[in-house]
DNA sequence: AGCACCACCTGTGGGC
DNA sequence: TGCCCACAGGTGGTGC
């Protein structure tokens, strides 16, 4: 489900709703939702902690506390939903309930159960246990100059694989990668090493633009994504290629789909070189 | 190093 | 019409 714009949408919406609130005792409906520490340590450690700020790196959301950092990764189908009243309307796929002292709550839903929660004591532990292989946030922490310097001209991989590599830079997922490559007219199978300087700059620009647009429209609901209020995103109506196999590109050519870097990849064979 | 493949899960839509 | 299985916004491990 969620790529950078979806997580950022949740972050922006959630922060004013929960900043200053204090957690009551969490209920883990599926204990494997907690990756670290043990479920018992997680519930005991979160109870009584107060939210100070919400931050993000790539697809990771950090709920910073007066002591420690509650970390969330939604993977494919996770939803983090804030509810005014204590209990959610629909309990199917509810994996964890994180109530606050004032009887509001954060509910974590996840159909496929891939998403995870962590409770770490500080940034040091966060970097060591969670963010070992997570590169800088592509939207907030990488300037054009940085990006050009990061592009290793000897790197043999394809553009699609580069952008999906969270260790290179974090936040891009399958949808925004395809949309970004369409926007800058680069083929997903182009080799990183073949990029000219101007093309690399256009790629950087397209990444920033597509992510900004995704955030502006509240993310993409292709299937399951919901924001922190349970509402749908709206960027799906702006997609140029993703999910549009056999539809016509604005150039008149049919959009194709093939597997690149192990992921279903949509592109225009005429516009993208 | 990078890539292909599997694993983790559940649901569903497209093809036969 | 109905059934089945390929595939789905992600990532981590393994082995080549």
What's the structural blueprint in terms of helices and strands?
Blueprint lengths: L3 H15 L8 E2 L5 E3 L2 H8 L4 E7 L2 E6 L3 E5 L4 E6 L10 E6 L5 E6 L5 E5 L2 H7 L14 H7 L8 H6 L9 H10 L13 H20 L39 E5 L2 E5 L6
Parallel strand pairs: 2-9
Antiparallel strand pairs: 1-7, 3-4, 4-5, 5-9, 6-8, 7-8, 10-11
The protein binds a DNA duplex (16 and 16 nucleotides) through helix 6.
How would you sum up this structure, described in words?
By secondary structure, this protein is of the alpha+beta class. The protein has seven helices and eleven strands. The strands form three sheets. Strands 2-9-5-4-3 form a five-stranded mixed beta sheet, with helices on both faces. β4 (60-65) and β5 (69-73) form a beta hairpin. α1 crosses α7. The model has no long low-confidence stretch (mean pLDDT 95). The protein binds a DNA duplex (16 and 16 nucleotides) through α6.
